[in-house]
């Protein structure tokens, strides 16, 4: 998308539809920038420049850079929840469940990056309203996923399934950067097979952790 189009004669959005479109444009630009260079490296100024607006105009729609990315994280939660629900139709065992969770997360590197930044940075420097809306969306998605997993009949209650799905996203947020190291570490791992063990494969590692959790939860009832 040519974000420069927004900068041709700036006019303040006044109607609800105009405001919605501008919010969507800001979110789309933030998504594109994060996909290119990682969430942590994108500043409010970067996002403002991408949509050809001054930072003071961007904060009319999002109070901070963190609020932009927290809302984008909420969107990614919804996208992941829908994708996982689509995979659950073919799930009839714990093994297929953990594979579905792991693979749908692997398919969403931006979501994994956002998950890794949520608690450490994105949930800071935001309004209580933005934080509350985000947490409600996460709870809603996990609740829907939990019910869908329970309906597969593999032996988990909706509450246990909620825990498994939540754990999957927590593990993914921590595991993703280790499984996708920066260039200097890739060079180190390539030259030292013993250290290469410090670069865990994403899907198998996540499957193993979730398999242990799925097996253990029923024993705690």
Q: How does this structure look, described?
A:
Residues 1-10 have low confidence and may be disordered. It is globular, with a radius of gyration of 20 Å. The longest helix is centred in the middle third of the chain and has 24 residues, at 65-88. With 221 residues, the chain is mostly helical. The protein is 69% helix and 0% strand. It has ten helices and no strands. The protein has helices at residues 16-37, 44-50, 55-58, 65-88, 94-106, 109-122, 128-150, 158-179, 183-191, 202-216. α4 packs across α6 (109-122), α6 (109-122) packs across α8 (158-179) and α8 (158-179) runs antiparallel to α10. The N and C termini lie far apart (52 Å). The relative contact order is 0.11.
Short characterization:
This protein is mostly helical.
Tally of contiguous helical segments: 10
How much helicity do the residues have? Answer: 55-70%
Percent strand equals under 5%
Arithmetic mean pLDDT = 93
The sequence of SSEs as H and E is HHHHHHHHHH
Shape: globular
Tell me the number of strands: 0
Secondary structure topology:
Layout: H1 16-37, H2 44-50, H3 55-58, H4 65-88, H5 94-106, H6 109-122, H7 128-150, H8 158-179, H9 183-191, H10 202-216
Helix pairs in contact: 1-2, 1-4, 4-5, 4-6, 4-7, 5-8, 5-10, 6-8, 7-8, 8-10
